[in-house]
Input
Amino acid sequence: MSTQPTLSDGASTSAAAIRFHNTMSGETEPFVPLTPGEVRVYTCGPTVYDFAHVGNFRTFVFQDILRRYLKSRGFRLLQVMNLTDVDDRIIQKAAAAGVSIREYTDKYIQAFLDDRAALNLEPPEFIARATEHIDDMVQLIQRLTDRGYTYTSEGSTYYRIAKFPDYGKLSKIDVAGMQTGARVDMDRYDKDNARDFALWKAPKPGEHSWETAIGPGRPGWHIECAAMALKYLGDTLDIHSGGVDLTFPHHENEIAESEAATGRKFARYWLHAEHLLVDHEKMSKSVGNFATLRELFARGHKPSSVRFLLASVPYRRQLNFTPESLQGAAGSVERLRNFASRLRSEKFPEGASEAMAERAATARREFDAGLADDLNTAQALAAIFDLVREANIAMDRGEFRQSDVAVVLEVMEMFDAIFAVLSDDDAAKLKTLGISSASPALSDAEVEALIAERQAARKRRDFAASDRIRDQLAEHGIILEDSRDGTVRWKRK
Ligand code: AMP
Ligand code: ZN
Output
């Protein structure tokens, strides 16, 4: 973690106009950043009281696709992500473990960063830890007090929502008729309980607290993000994002805090990822229907399968999570990797085919058009799979030429700059996490399909591909016996 954020450079291209769905307007709008060529993004990070679950990572993968796409379109990017390392749950759990909140959260911050690396999530330009920004939060609360937006009660400071006429504009809650002066001390509550919320919480016996100019205590959750976003990104940022559950109260309260203090619009585009579900219910710690990445990896699933699955469903669609969908994702990644390896290893007749150059250009255009359309990853992927299918057919027919390789590889590289699954490094990633890579069992049908693929590779004398498939099967404990008549028998180890 550096101490000052700097912007990352992006590549430059000319392509389809980018449109994002803005929760504030409820519409899909053309994306125009405040400063041409530069995008300032704030993404709400995790509360580090435990390992993040795969539902959390759905939102973090969406944010990674967002940043990778903006960079690929040539924008310079400044993404700031917070780590909420103080809240009710952290205080309780650290006390139960008999350690400081710093010591308690350090472990989960490291785990979060390691999990991110396993999923190829690019590091944001700046990661801000809440407990290192207490002064900024106190100053923001003082600004709000100077402007008449706060009051105190029993040592806590509250935000007076009746004073902010725009309250509810993001989540569209109706505040008319709401009881003024009713307060809520918890950070998380629902729309039916919209109340004056705690900016600063009075200390409780035995709880960690800070001595500050506004008295002893600790910050509420919402002021953390508002203070850090304003500090590093300025009064108005381009994009603010998180999962849909953050719309209310978290983002609503961040708007109330920052706009009341600055008198300016806080964020120009609000992007919210729909939930990852299990049996049609939101994956969450409180329901208990969650899996951490490490649990999935220990069951034999690969980091690339998880990333692919989470990335493949457009972020505004709910994603029902099943082991079968992960297996399907693993198959898709294999197909793409096999294709990239075929491109690199097979020898094709000399020359170039005009049809393939056109095909590649279409794929490139459609891939970009999909992502430009509010990050429609499903459409972008369809463009790539169409190209893979047609190029494979052309190769089988001997119509694919050696000079087509570079053209098609370029499209695959463009794809991988966003999806980041082609590199065959799952085992190494698992090793870094200290997990041995036990592969999941394949069904008979999956084994038969891979054998058929290997036979086709052998027929076209692509021995690199056929060896790869043999190794892949061996990883799953499947042994092949090639007979003289060309048929293949297999058995499980
Ligand atoms: P938290 O650590 O609870 O603050 O959550 C971190 C991020 O994960 C936030 O952006 C949440 O909105 C998001 N999130 C939590 N549960 C899910 C889920 N089931 N599906 C998608 N995103 C989620
Ligand atoms: Zn936040």
About this structure: DSSP finds 15 helices and 17 strands in the chain. The pocket of zinc ion (ligand 2) is lined by residues 44, 82, 225, 250 (CB under 6 Å).
